[in-house]
Amino acid sequence: MPSRQKKVIFCLAGVLSFACVLVVAAAMGTPFWVKGTVLCKTGAQLVNATGSELEKFVGKISYGLFHGQRLKQCGLGGRPFRFSFFPDLLDAIPASLHVSVILFCSVLIVFSSVASAFFMYNAFGSPYETLQGPLGLYLWNFICCFCSCLVMILFASEVRLHRLSEKISNYNEGSFVYKTHTEQFDRSFWIILFTFLAHGLNILLIRMAGIQFPFQEAKEADVNVGASDLMY
């Protein structure tokens, strides 16, 4: 492939990696990872609410990695309330799992930045080592894909398996019990999926630039050595 086309491909991949840095950093600070509704179970049972009457006992909740907000509905009107995970909810949530999600998001930002820098370096510079050369680009993007997968898996398990929305809703509630009514992942969560797909696309762009996969190249070298040994 002509060097000009390689430069264009590497520049496009570098821009994608830098876009991943920006969107993940923005997503970490927003309270739009999960949104849903929460039913005030105690209030609904007290008046035996059914059908359309349940709407008076269904509040809203949305949160991210650091903060969020909820609207309590127990038949007496909505009561908005803002909360922060650190340090308020550390005793109520699986703190180690939550911190792991934040940690891998930070690692994802760091390695996306590294991938973007090395794409630009390979487009306009003269790489001279494996980690700085074209083959090293596979490494950085595989790490980014791995980190984005971990973020989605860990956060999904925290929300679904550990019932994070219910724990947040019932925090410091002495007389009322809340239960998750509806729950879905919001746009900030799906940004992580976009990041995974973007780095997967970068891997394809590297291959389109004519750079063989590292393991494929090593395998071909082993086959050639074995054939020469048989001949001599």
Automatic annotation (TrEMBL):
Q: Which residues cross the membrane?
A: 97-123, 135-156, 188-206
Biological processes per GO annotation: equilibrioception; sensory perception of sound
Subcellular localization, as worded in the UniProt entry:
Membrane
Whether Transmembrane helix counts among this entry's keywords is yes
Q: Which UniProt keywords apply?
A: Membrane, Transmembrane, Transmembrane helix
Instruction: Please tell me one Gene Ontology term that the record gives under cellular component.
Output: membrane
Q: How does it sit in the membrane?
A: Multi-pass membrane protein
The superkingdom listed in its UniProt entry is Eukaryota
Q: What is its main location?
A: membrane
Q: Please state which protein family the record places this protein in.
A: Belongs to the clarin family.
**Protein name as catalogued:** Clarin 1
